[in-house]
Amino acid sequence: MQTLLFVLGLILFLLGLLTGLAVPAMKNPRMGLASHLQGMTNGPFLIVIGLLWPHLNLTHVWQVVTVALLAYGTYANWLATQLAAIWGAGRKLAPVAAGDHVASSTKERLVNFLLASLAVAMVAATVILMVGILR
Q1: ∠ CA 40-70-51 to the nearest 5 degrees?
Q2: Is residue 54 a contact partner of residue 10, using CB atoms and an 8 Å limit?
Q3: pLDDT at 101
Q4: How far apart are CA 112 and CA 81, in angstroms?
Q5: Across residues 6-29, what is the average pLDDT?
Q6: What pLDDT score does 135 carry?
Q7: pTM, 2 dp
Q8: Which of 131, 132, 18, 133 is nearest to 85 (CA)?
Q9: Distance between CA 6 and CA 107 in Å, rounded?
Q10: Do residues 10 and 43 touch, judged by C-beta distance below 8 A?
């Protein structure tokens, strides 16, 4: 699990770097910057959790659940803001970054779903990590 977290973190960090190069070409560059920052912060976050991993006391099932939640939450965060940048979406749950941009209702719903579901995943993963470190 530790190596998987390292690899997932490095890939997400790379996606953040590449997103930063594409920001000027996006429909909503401000949201593109948000996506760049998600990759640049969530990638190292996964690496830090990988460093913490040997100190967790979790069963194998909970380890798998936690890594799945972390992977989903961090990658969905990058993807949601990336799609919002490309489509000009995200007005409901990210109004500051979305500005005056509005996309089709289907695109807005997808971005909103990703943003809402990743929040639940990250809170759940964090609670599991806290339990695992305190055991």
Answers
A1: 75
A2: no
A3: 72
A4: 10
A5: 96
A6: 87
A7: 0.91
A8: 18
A9: 31
A10: yes
